Amino acid sequence: MKLKVNGIEKLVKKGFISKSEKQALDKLIAExxxxxxxxxxxxxxxxxxxxxxxxxxxxxxxLLPGEVSGDTRRQIIYKVFDINLTYETNLSPLIMAEGDWExxxxxxxxxxxxxxxxxxxx
Length: 122
Hints:
This protein is an alpha+beta fold. The protein has helices at about 5-15, 20-35, 45-50, 70-85, 100, 110-120, and strands at about 40-45, 60-65, 90-95, 120. A four-stranded mixed β-sheet has the order 3-2-1-4, with helices on both faces.
């Protein structure tokens, strides 16, 4: 029986993201889920499209249930910073409340359409 390969694993297999980036992403998602049950995340940007260069970051949309306070945003940014140092990666978070992301004004932004169309769930 063949195991189903998720989107992130396909990106690694294609060489779009490194094994280290996948490990960093896995660590971040695990920590986010432990602190904020119900969190959702998608990677997007040049790495997902396969057009990244050596200086490209790995963009990640983080959608939190409920409101996102300044304190919550700082906690996530510190987690990302520590993970980037540990894994020598450059994860770059876009942090939003899920309700705001689904809201009428945000849904009109070009980045919303791009992420919804080409983003890979984590």
